[in-house]
């Protein structure tokens, strides 16, 4: 197929996806972070279908995805008319953040406009919004001409999908689910979430590729951690995000992290494991060194020591390793540093929820 005819083909598929959304159906689509499971943000029945398909409790709010104007010059987008119908007010900080990072992997939480459906906010008074950067997501949103709610397209508590095939394997029983294939997601972990609804300062709710330091550098806006006050805050120098340790993004195979050089310590929790342990090692230091064990076979898997590259492959690696029948998967603890907060958060949750006994205490 020539590139012209494949562009036409894609355009026809997106038109069909738009029709599905208008008819109250679900459409999975790529974003630059992870794949989303989309529905019309103005259709309560369609929103309910998302919760059913994911097995997600109905009080967990969804993100509304909005289009950027066609052929935009990012410097000149006027986000006000795009976002205003969804929110009660738009602060100076909100405008600066949107101008600096949208379209892109940043979600902002606002006080909601009264027209925003309770079904999508989980009954809360706030609404989360983002304009994704992926061209297929943008074309879908532009043609749909409305907001699309989209959680990550995975079953509740499972690893988020970063390819169309991952989405298919999550929803194998939903044979008629339309999935737009946009290849592998570049960012690989979910968007950074900043809460602008809670009064005087923005608060980081979920770490991601865009860090508080980058936000401060580009906009001069200090982002606080939950519970942090202005008296404990020091300029743009943000401490590590502690994050909740609830299970999330979890593989079925047990997963743990090991401290540098302490692979054997990580095994002590699993006295019955005789063999088949996959150990991720940094590409900068691709050897287990002195570590060894008489009865355990370690298989090394190289992972990038750059935080951005690591994030982009994290869920892919977890999914692939989970398929390979290991008894245990070990990942190195990410180093200190804010650029690692997003992956540290996802890995901690994945460890906590991993293993065959995983039950429904996850949060997405
Ligand atoms: O990168 C992403 O954000 C992806 C792609 C598909 O856009 N979406 C995503 O959605 O990760 P989901 O539903 O898996 O995670 C949304 C997160 C949840 O942790 C939810 O609690 C939080 O956003 N959230 C949504 N609305 C909120 C609100 N009003 N206040 C606070 N948190 C909110
Ligand atoms: Mg999710």
TrEMBL record:
This entry's Enzyme Commission designation comes to 2.7.7.87
The keyword Oxidoreductase appears for this protein: no
| Location(s), subcellular | Cytoplasm
- Where would you say this protein principally sits, based on its record? cytoplasm
* Ranges in coiled-coil conformation: none
Residue ranges annotated for the YrdC-like domain, each copy included: 11-210
Where L-threonine is bound, by residue?
33, 65, 130, 150, 191
One Pfam family name is Sua5_yciO_yrdC
GO MF, one annotated term = tRNA binding
What family does the entry list?
Answer: Belongs to the SUA5 family.
Fetch the NCBIfam families from UniProt.
L-threonylcarbamoyladenylate synthase
UniProt-recorded name of the protein: Threonylcarbamoyl-AMP synthase
């Amino acid at each position: 197929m020539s590139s012209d005819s494949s562009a036409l083909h894609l355009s026809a598929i997106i038109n069909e996806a738009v029709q599905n959304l208008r008819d109250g159906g679900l459409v999975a689509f790529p974003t630059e972070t992870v794949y989303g499971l989309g529905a019309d943000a103005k259709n309560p029945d369609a929103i309910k279908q998302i919760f059913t398909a994911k097995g997600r409790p109905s009080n967990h709010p969804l993100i509304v995805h909005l289009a950027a104007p066609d052929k935009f010059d990012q410097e000149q987008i006027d986000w006000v008319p795009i976002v205003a119908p969804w929110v009660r007010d738009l602060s100076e900080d909100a405008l600066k953040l949107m101008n600096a990072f949208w379209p892109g992997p940043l979600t902002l939480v606002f006080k909601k406009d009264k027209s925003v459906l309770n079904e999508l906010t989980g009954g809360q008074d706030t609404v989360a919004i983002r304009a994704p950067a992926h061209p297929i997501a943008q074309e879908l949103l532009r043609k749909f001409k409305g907001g699309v709610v989209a959680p990550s397209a995975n079953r509740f508590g499972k690893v988020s999908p970063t390819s169309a095939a991952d989405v298919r394997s999550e929803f194998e029983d939903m044979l008629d689910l339309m999935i737009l294939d946009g290849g592998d997601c570049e960012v690989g972990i979910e968007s950074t979430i900043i809460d602008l609804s809670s009064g005087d300062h923005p608060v980081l709710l979920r770490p991601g590729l865009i860090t508080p330091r980058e936000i401060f550098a580009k906009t001069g806006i200090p982002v606080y951690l939950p519970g942090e006050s202005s008296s404990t805050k020091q300029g743009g120098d943000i401490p590590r995000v502690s994050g909740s340790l609830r299970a999330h993004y979890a593989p079925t195979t047990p997963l743990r992290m090991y401290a540098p050089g302490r692979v054997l310590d990580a095994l002590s929790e699993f006295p019955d494991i005789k063999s088949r342990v996959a150990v991720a090692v940094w590409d900068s230091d691709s050897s287990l060194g002195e570590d060894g064990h008489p009865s355990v076979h370690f298989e090394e898997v190289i992972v990038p020591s750059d935080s951005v590259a690591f994030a982009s492959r994290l869920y892919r690696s977890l999914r692939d390793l989970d398929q390979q029948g290991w008894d245990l998967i070990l990942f190195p603890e990410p180093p200190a540093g804010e650029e690692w907060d997003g992956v540290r958060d996802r890995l901690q949750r994945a460890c906590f929820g991993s293993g065959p006994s995983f039950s429904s205490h996850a949060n997405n």
